[in-house]
Amino acid sequence: MKKRDLTGFAFISPWLIGFAVFTAAPFLATIYLSFTRYNIVTPPVWVGSVNYRRLFTEDELFWKSLWITVKYALVAVPLGVVAGVALAMLLNLPLKGMALYRTLFYLPSIVPVVATTVVFVWLLNPQIGLVNAILQRFGVIGPAWLQDTKWAFWSLVFMSLWGVGGSMVIYIAGLKDIPAQLYEAAMIDGAGVLARTRHITLPMLSPVIFFNLVMGVIQAFQYFSQAYIMTQGGPENSTSFYALYLFYRAWRYMDMGYASAMSWVLFLIIMLVTGLIFRTHKKWVHYGG
Amino acid sequence: MGESNNDSGTWKAVALLAGAVLLFACAGSFSRAEAKRAHPERIPVRFWHMWTAEWKVVVERICTRFNESQDRYEVIPLSVPPGNADAKFMLAVAGGDPPDVMAQWNQVIPNWAEAGLIVPLDELMQPEELQRFNAEAYPIVRKIGSYKNRLYGITTGLNIWACYYRPDHVRAAGLDPDHFPETMDELVQWEDKLVRFDAGKHLQRMAYQPGFYTLYPALYGGGFYDDATGRLQLNTPQNRAALEFLVERRSKFGFDEVVRFESGLNASYGMDWPFISGAYSIAVDGQWRVEQIAKFAPNLEYRTAPIPPPRGGKKHATWSCGNFMIVPSGAKQPQGALEFIKFWSGIANPERAGEFYTWGGWLPLSPAVAASSHYRKYLAEHPQFKVFLEILPSEDVQPTPPVPYQMFLWDRISQAEQSAVRGTLSPADALARLDREMTQELARRKELGHDD
To answer: What ipTM score was computed for the predicted complex, to two decimals?
Structure first.
């Protein structure tokens, strides 16, 4: 190895060491731990495939939390993409004061999750919350939101739109990259707004949509903080997301082996879903030029 | 020239790396530095607790008193956020740098004892101290702190729940506040007369806020654990009857209506307690409310009474929990920790400790603490507190089952309660599900080699 290479490695060594010690090693250790009984204090005891077998065959809450998480990924991610793209297109219009609007729409996404979540707990309070107060003005008696098994999950989906400003900025950057001559040519050919959106904007934006979709799906499968703060998985496990259940198994019940098995199932699911999205991307993602 | 540049680059990189390592080392040494100590010459006893706000002040007062009484140890308290405290504690023990003593209120003793996270206190105590503790402490104190006949926790404040009621509401409803219901049937009659609806037929005032499910099975002669066999007993007629009573308190007004009514109430501490604002006429709550009412609503007229049992049920039977002290494995100063525990709990000096219990509105460790001059004065000033003290010695006050999967069991019981009181499942079905879930969990644990 050349000295120049050594210099490079020396510069990135803090990150490399951090990655090896705090990410790679625990990641690999969980493979072994998932086949053990382990409580972090006493040494792990090898138990074979018991954790996986019990997980798949007897743990109703595992399947329920997996379904809740899949449902969230299926609903909240596309919803976030649609809202993000729509907002970006609106905020890409050549109107006065647009920079201010973009800032305003982006601001919520830089507010810490915990602060946003606590505010939403109040907004969604059925008796004294702002959401139901507005609904009442239109003669609608709002539901009990976070306390209602039918509405708690949808409340979290609804709340996810609050942070759409983060992806919106990336979409705006993508829109700016679309060559203006494509629109000019289309307009000369008589294409209307819808046709231009359908045949120019969306295809040219598809690499950005693809990126946000992949990241959104991965984040959806790791959804934790909001449910942990707002509902703790309730009422009646209606918001028991996978990562939340995994956390409880690990830190509340000190069942690290079982939680490790759950984490590997989650990892494989994320890999599978991401792989599927990658496999389909050639059909709908268009790289300009 | 190029070689020389490379050399210089390598040295710069090495220097940078060395700088970074130095920085980390400094950060490490800074993080280990304790806050400025009042008695640096003494042996430090690091104490973790989870109290915040007004409670933290009380805890720190007790620590100060301990430090004033000492010439050997200095207790250094640290308030750890309750949400992360358990995980932090486990990691600290696993990492070999735990505190010397921790105050807990979560159901952790069996689980942590089984995992070797905490040490038996009876090993640290002198035989005569242990003997005195076993002879003097209230039965529930011993039950809460013990696992497999070893003492792992010593309580510094017990919690008992009872009925708080508003004589003004009672009189206005044409009832006699001097004759609080003695059976659940009578309580239901009061409920019908005390409840209020607004013009839109929505609940305006609930007559009876029953608290939570685990308080009730003992009143019916039930419970979740059989001490004699060491086995769980979940889906029993007594436990079903208790859950049915709780469900009826909601179903008669409509499950959704009660959820909606309660979600608008901020049931936190201090002035926000809905009983103070008059949202409830009778509310089941813990003894610490006496102290809170004295602080935040000193002019409120209220009284207390035990939760009435069903006809033929048990009086003074309930579930209890408490704040207790544990000593982690690997504690550097276990004897200093024990000194502090004895000081606060009253094992060392009941007369002195009586005052600490009154600061937090806590129930005492033993009749000797209850007989202390401070505690008697407190009772004279707050006669409502006596009801809790009367319940305390009862053998029918039950702890959470002392099993190493206590947290899991607790969560599953809570799920069964939720499903029943929301009307998703009947009480019988909710308890049948609980039974099934626990049977599966026990089978899983057995297969994993746990010795339950």
So the answer is: 0.83
